[in-house]
Write a structure and sequence with these properties.
Length: about 400
């Protein structure tokens, strides 16, 4: 469909945490309005990211269940929809950590994290709020390790050896807590509205069958952006403050990860013919590593996307509606129409395509890479794909 200037911008205007792949609140509210949800509806976002879908649901009074495989994004999403009570308890947690930490003038994140972990987790959302408030601080500490690639930090980036002035750290933590509280979207008096964000893998399970009335989400794009590595400062902080999975294993588990793995041929053979044809074109391309690395990368993405779409269809009620936001990409001169792929995979599982609304965007990792192919450096097409489960 043609681009419409009347539609809300797809460019994120995130006030507290700039998430590369996020969409703005106005877009999420507009998309929710188009879904024509029934009273008391429950929405799912299987790629929760920074929590915009959940925040939009909280603002308009719709219940939402969000999942994300990256624990960093789980904490961030929870902070975005936490209640005032959660924020009050988070401030109490910070005060308790201040009392536990050694009274010496200087300390480090390891000592602060150890003190934080001594405290019992009575309220998961207050715990997440306190941790997420420190994410901008962690990013500022590793700023010297940034590279031109927005998703990458220099090898060996660490907080080790960084001394922190105790007298300034805790007031800064409280100030950041106040900043993140401005970002939250929860209506504390919204009766019957439940917003929950948990860690989960879209390829494996998304809950009970026929549990959700709608879906609003955006899967990782086919741009080889390492979403886990892009959250390295937050992940390193979380390692000191909480229990986290192995980062390398998490990176390999992420949909769209640039770290490829071998997939059995029968998994690829289950893909729709149009996608198998695309993979054959990539595999036979004359460019170096087309038949090895790049074929594995694209086939892994589509196999994982198909598994995720199967789970989405399973938990969506008959008659349930959805919107999935995707971005086109390229492999050399080969166009990767991800919106068309979503449509054809969705139809396999009874999700009837209703509309595709296109936006132009200059947000793409290929636009940052000056060595990218000419076709890859053109403005990208982002699409909101609307469907209904038959």
């Amino acid at each position: 469909m043609p681009v419409s200037s009347k539609l809300p911008s797809r460019r994120s205007k995130n006030e507290f945490y700039r998430y590369y792949a996020g969409y703005p609140m106005e877009f999420a509210e507009w998309a929710l309005g188009r879904l024509a949800l029934p009273p008391g509806a429950l929405i799912i976002d299987p790629w929760n990211g920074s929590g915009t879908t959940a925040a939009a649901c909280a603002r308009v009074g719709i219940s939402c269940q969000g999942y994300d495989i990256n624990p960093v994004m789980v904490h961030l999403g929870r902070a975005r929809v936490a209640s005032q009570v959660d924020f009050d308890e988070a401030e109490e947690l910070i005060g308790s950590v201040d009392q536990i930490v050694s009274p010496k003038d200087s300390t480090d994140l390891k000592a602060i994290g150890l003190a934080f972990r001594e405290l019992p987790v009575g309220n998961e959302y207050a715990h997440s709020v306190a941790v997420a408030a420190l994410f901008p601080y962690a990013r500022s500490l590793l700023n010297v390790s940034r590279t031109k690639n927005p998703s990458w930090f220099k090898k060996g980036a660490t907080f080790d050896g960084m001394s922190i002035e105790r007298s300034t750290f805790f007031p800064s933590w409280i100030a950041l807590l106040a900043e993140i509280s401005k970002w939250r979207s929860t209506q504390d008096d919204a009766d019957g509205v439940v917003i929950s964000i948990e860690r989960g893998d879209s390829r494996k399970s998304l809950g009970r069958k026929d549990a959700f009335d709608g879906i609003l989400t955006s899967p990782p794009y086919l741009t080889r952006l390492d979403y886990v590595q892009a959250t390295l400062p937050e992940f390193l902080l979380l390692k000191e403050f909480d229990i986290v999975p192995d980062m390398q294993r998490l990176r390999r588990s992420m949909l769209g990860s640039p770290l490829t793995s071998e997939r059995p041929d029968w998994n690829v053979e289950r893909l729709p013919e149009t996608i198998r044809d695309l993979l054959r074109r990539i595999e036979s391309h004359t460019s170096k590593a087309s038949a090895s690395y790049y074929y594995r990368f694209f086939s892994t993405y589509f196999v994982d996307l198909q598994a995720s779409m199967r789970n989405i269809a399973k938990v969506l009620k008959a008659g349930g509606s959805g919107c999935i936001v995707v971005q086109s990409s390229n492999y050399k001169e080969i166009n990767i129409d991800l919106a068309a792929a979503i449509v054809v995979i969705g139809e396999e599982f009874g999700m009837r395509h209703e509309d595709t609304i296109e936006f132009k965007s200059r947000r793409s990792i290929s636009l940052v890479n000056t060595r990218a192919h000419h076709d890859a450096r053109q403005p990208k097409s982002e699409c909101a794909v609307f469907f209904r489960k038959t």
